Amino acid sequence: MSQLTSRRAFLSARMFREDSSIARPPGSTMFDFLDHCTKCGDCATACPEAVIAFDQDRFPVFQPGENPCTFCGDCAKACPTDALQIENLASWPWRAELREDSCLSMNGVSCRVCQDNCEQNAIRFRLQLGGRAAPSLDVDTCNGCGSCVTLCPVDAIALERQPIPQTEAIQ
């Protein structure tokens, strides 16, 4: 078992219910979000960028649209439960991931819309032989706002959860 589970989740057989491939709103609690969320929708209503949508079970999900997430914390402030917490904004685990084989620039088409719209300057292009340019991503600079994901015309960018660094206890 790679994650710690609350006693309540274990006894109610919900310890593996949360799918870690689903991006929850910024500030979400990592492993017990579904236990705390009441599906009230206050987070989506409070979000000025409208980056919070709902999945088929009516739980909120992070779904960037025309505007990138600014991590303002309004969603966490509006949450009446512990599902979203302001102090968790800094540990947002989602970052952009490039799929070079789908990228238009790697296929000879001049496109750099992701670089042009990345406020963090996390996406750059390196010129290659033959007039192509290879995209590169600085994961440390990327904040996971999602603007590049929605702007890419061929879905060559997706948000991926970054592994949580494991610290080892010194004995």
For the CA atoms, what is the radius of gyration? 18 Å
Shape: elongated
What is the ordering of alpha helices and beta strands?
A: HHHEEHEHEEHE
Please count the helical segments: 6
The strands making up the biggest β-sheet line up spatially as: 1-2
Measure the end-to-end span. 22 Å
- Main structural class: alpha+beta
Description:
The chain is α+β, with helices and mostly antiparallel strands and 171 residues long. Helix content is 17%, strand content 15%. The strands form three sheets. The protein has a two-stranded antiparallel sheet with strand order 1-2. Strands 3-6 form a two-stranded antiparallel ribbon. The protein has a two-stranded antiparallel ribbon with strand order 4-5. A hairpin with a 5-residue loop joins β4 and β5.
How is the topology of this model organized?
Layout: H1 7-11, H2 33-36, H3 42-46, E1 52-54, E2 60-62, H4 74-78, E3 94-98, H5 113-117, E4 123-127, E5 133-137, H6 147-151, E6 157-161
Antiparallel strand pairs: 1-2, 3-6, 4-5
